[in-house]
Write a structure and sequence with these properties.
The protein is built from 21 helices and 10 strands. The chain is of the alpha+beta class. The longest helix has 32 residues.
């Protein structure tokens, strides 16, 4: 027996052949985890909870169905505020914060701008992190954004309507609303000081607060439809993944409808509710000076968003059983593998990273060129982008346009629009999905169907040519030749419309020459500028004669037939439904117009193009057009605020002209996509393979 036979073989105890022997005072080796230990460690990572708090009773939420519920609820909340509340309160924000329509249009567009800029980084970072916790974080940001959007209400102080007649109104305030003879003919009673000018401009500066709030809201919306869908797809079976996404979109579609219905009810409440009801100030929802409660819904949605974020933070990276759905998923690295990585040469790693970046850039350029060679894909994307430019602009100002065209209060216009347009979209999407399934994978037929539906739904824009005729108006900016109220020293910024017995609407009791008011009946008397018969207009000026007459508080009623409003909203319903018929076919066509390996990239580029060309400039273009239809601006000390009175005929013509022009451009691109389409060999091969699979499946069933 050799003297060395009793010594341990240190070569067998080394980690590898170049390893040094370990001393007896240290562990000779670190054993690998057994399969049971690794499985137990996995089970800990697959439990629902927060930090170390993962009790058994919480595991009832650790399913894909609960994940679908919370993700869908987040989408419904986000769409309620973005596509329901904000379009419904646009006109209210303009009057409250003295903004033009182009500025309010920028508020709407800023959401898409932030989403476009941040989404590439968001999707890249979120793809390498815990998707559940990422969704919880952006939902928390959504809650913060909602509170920030409502914050200007608390920062601006109490709203005081011009010419309000509350019991606590001072005599000096009432004097400015009535006609009082002045020794200086035509002089204005408006006192312009530095403080007054700064106060006027400070309100419009809240535009930037709303834009920052849109940044937080956009992070939730952008992540939800990218990271959220990917997160669900990773944790459910492939054959039900599409069903989960469809259910999610169905839940999300409820949001805008709820938003329009709720904002219609909230705007019927006074802006200072519940502290003040508005009626004590002599204001009603039909008063042009009425500011509805635009802010109350945002803190409620923000609170709900924060509450929904809590369970989203609790979901694990992978739901239980999800590891069995993906056979190609990489195994957890062992400690030996980690040791090998830490000992890798750093220079080789850096060189490898550089090579991967270079390869990624080359692959990106190649993918872009491949997409550019698909002319039908490019043309179809351009056509839909111009359609989105039109629809996003009309959607942003839809309640306001309805209010201007037909003289209905904003509370009713938001409610009517939500109950007509959004259900039309939902019904159209469901029916369109069935039609797309019937058409199949024939891209030529899909493009033809898209063009037909696009053309038919576009005919509905003719409804914007309808409007209710405005009453004759005697406003300072409308009738510069009218000199009747020059001696009353009326302030140019005074806006408190009254309707004279002669059927003419005046900018204020002062501009009508009224000197007295019955607070019980809200009837003005001794109005020197109102005659017992309609005012007669000669070639140079408006002239009056006869006995002075009376005026009632509020704007004059508009001449409007009973069928116009129902016809208008019925047409909007049909437009939304017919337009949504083509939506599933459009998505199917996009997927068929690009090679199979580039479909995700093609959808991403299509979404970027639609945002850049369509949804970002759309609201700003329509806002600028509406500013050009303004007949009376809010002014103070030489500064211009919101538009007080619109020319309804011009608004209808501008909206119709923009929509028609953009529709023609969009239809032209879609027609070209149909004409130049040539089947792709790879796609056709895939189509025939799918057909063979179907036949084989049918044969198996038999």
């Amino acid at each position: 027996m050799s003297m060395f036979s009793s010594l341990p073989d240190l070569r067998q105890l080394a980690h590898h052949q170049n390893g040094r022997p370990l001393l007896d005072t240290t562990p000779r080796y670190e054993p690998f985890n057994t399969t049971a230990q690794i499985q137990k460690e996995k089970e800990k990572n697959f439990r629902f909870g927060w930090f170390g708090f993962k009790p058994d009773f919480l595991q009832v939420f650790n399913t894909s169905r609960w994940l679908l519920f919370f993700v869908g609820l987040t989408g419904a909340l986000e769409c309620t505020s973005t596509y329901g509340f904000i379009p419904g309160i646009i006109s209210t924000l303009e009057r409250r914060f003295e903004m033009s329509s182009s500025k309010s249009g920028f508020i709407v567009s800023s959401y898409q701008i932030f989403a476009l800029v941040t989404m590439p980084f968001v999707t890249h970072i979120a793809g390498k992190t815990h998707k559940g916790k990422w969704l919880g974080a952006v939902t928390l940001l959504y809650g913060v954004g909602c509170f920030l959007f409502a914050s200007p209400h608390f920062l601006t102080g109490r709203y005081e309507a011009p010419g309000s007649y509350a019991t606590n109104v001072t005599s000096s305030q009432q004097t400015n609303t009535m006609c009082h003879q002045s020794s200086n003919n035509g002089s204005s009673t408006e006192q312009c000081t530095t403080e007054t000018t700064e106060s006027f401009s400070a309100l419009s500066n809240y535009l930037y607060v709303f834009v920052v709030a849109q940044f937080f809201l956009s992070q939730c919306g952008g992540s939800l439809f990218t990271v959220g869908i990917a997160y669900m797809d990773e944790n459910v079976k492939k054959k039900v993944s599409g069903l989960y996404v469809a259910i999610m979109f169905t839940i999300v579609c409820i949001g805008p409808t709820i938003g329009y219905v709720l904002i219609g009810q909230l705007l019927s409440l006074y802006v200072e509710w519940p502290i003040e009801d508005g009626y004590s100030a002599g204001l009603t929802p039909w008063d042009p000076r009425w500011i509805g409660n635009w802010w109350f819904g945002f803190p409620v949605l923000g609170t709900l968003g924060i509450l929904v974020a809590i369970p989203l933070f609790g979901f694990p990276r992978k739901l239980p059983g999800s590891e069995e759905l993906h056979d190609d998923e990489a195994q957890l690295p062992t400690k030996a593998a980690e040791s090998d990585v830490t000992k890798a040469d750093e220079e080789a790693q850096i060189q490898s990273i550089i090579e991967r970046i270079r390869g990624a850039l080359e692959d990106l350029l190649k993918s872009l060129l491949d997409l550019a060679r698909s002319y039908s894909y490019v043309l179809l994307t351009l056509g839909v982008s111009f359609d989105n430019m039109s629809s996003s602009g009309m959607f942003a100002f839809a309640p306001k346009v309805c209010q201007i065209l037909f003289g209905i209060p904003v509370t009713s216009s938001a409610l009517y629009f939500g109950l007509s347009m959004i259900p039309g979209f939902a019904i159209g999407s469901l029916v369109g999905g069935w039609i797309s399934k019937k058409i199949g994978v024939d891209c030529k037929k899909l493009l033809r169907f898209i063009l037909i539906m696009y053309t038919i739904s576009g005919m509905g824009i003719c409804v914007y040519l309808m409007y209710c005729k405005d009453p004759p108006k005697a406003y300072g900016q409308l009738n510069n030749n009218m000199t009747c109220a020059d001696s009353c020293a009326c302030a140019d910024n005074l806006y408190n419309p009254v309707c004279g017995e002669n059927g003419m609407e005046y900018q204020s009791p002062c501009h009508a020459g009224c000197t007295a008011l019955n607070h019980t009946t809200m009837v003005y008397s001794n109005c020197s500028c109102i005659t017992s018969s309609r005012m007669q207009q000669n070639s140079t000026a408006y002239v009056t004669s006869g006995v002075t007459s009376l005026a009632t508080h509020g704007a004059c009623a508009r001449d409007c037939e009973a069928y116009r409003v129902p016809l208008f909203f019925s047409t909007l319903f049909l437009m939304g439904m017919l337009g949504a018929f083509a939506a599933p076919s459009y998505m199917a066509a996009i997927l068929r117009l690009v090679p199979p390996k580039q479909r995700s990239f093609g959808l991403g580029m299509q979404r970027c193009m639609v945002r850049i060309i369509g949804t970002i400039p759309g609201p700003m273009i329509y806002g600028y057009a509406m500013d050009n239809a303004c007949a009376q601006w809010q002014t103070s000390c030489g500064q211009r605020g919101a538009c007080l009175v619109y020319d309804s005929r011009k608004v209808g013509l501008f909206v119709f002209g923009l929509a028609l022009g953009l529709r023609i451009v969009g239809a032209t691109f879609i027609s070209l996509a149909y004409l130049v389409y040539k089947p792709n060999a790879a796609i056709e091969e895939e189509k025939y393979d799918n057909a063979d699979d179907v036949k084989l499946t049918n044969g198996d069933v038999k």
